[in-house]
Amino acid sequence: MFTKTFLKHAVQLGICSTVLLMLSVGSVSARDNEIKFELTDNPGRWFDTGTSVAGNRSIAIATPGVRVKFSGNSNTVHTRTSLIFPTGAANMPFNTEPRKGGDDVILTTPGLYVFTCSIHPYMFGAVIVDDPKTSGLDLGTSISLINGITVPTSSDLATRLLRTFFIATNPANWQNYASNQPWHITYPDVDVRVDIGVVNLPAVLNARYGNDIPLVALENPKTSAVGEIWVATQFENTQSKEKPGTISAIDGSSWQVTRKVALPSIEMNNPHNMWTDKDQTVIYATQWFDSKLTVFDRLTGALIRNVSVGESPAHVMTLTDSDRLHVTNNGDTRTDSVMELAPLADGVLRRVDIGRGNPHAHWMSHDGKTMVTPNVFSGDSTQYNFHTNAIEAIVPVGSPFGHPIATGMMPDATKYYAANFLDSTLAVVNMDTHTVTKHINLIENYDPVAGTITGPVGALPIQTPVSPDGKNMVTANTLTGTITIVNTITDELVAMLPCDPGCHGVQYGAKQGGGYYAYVSSKFSNRLLIVDPDPNNDGDPSDAKIAGTVGLFSASTTQHDDTVSANPGMGGQGILPIPLVYNGWVQNLPASWSSQLTAAQLNPIK
Question: Could you say which residues form the signal peptide (predicted)?
Answer without folding.
Answer: 1-30
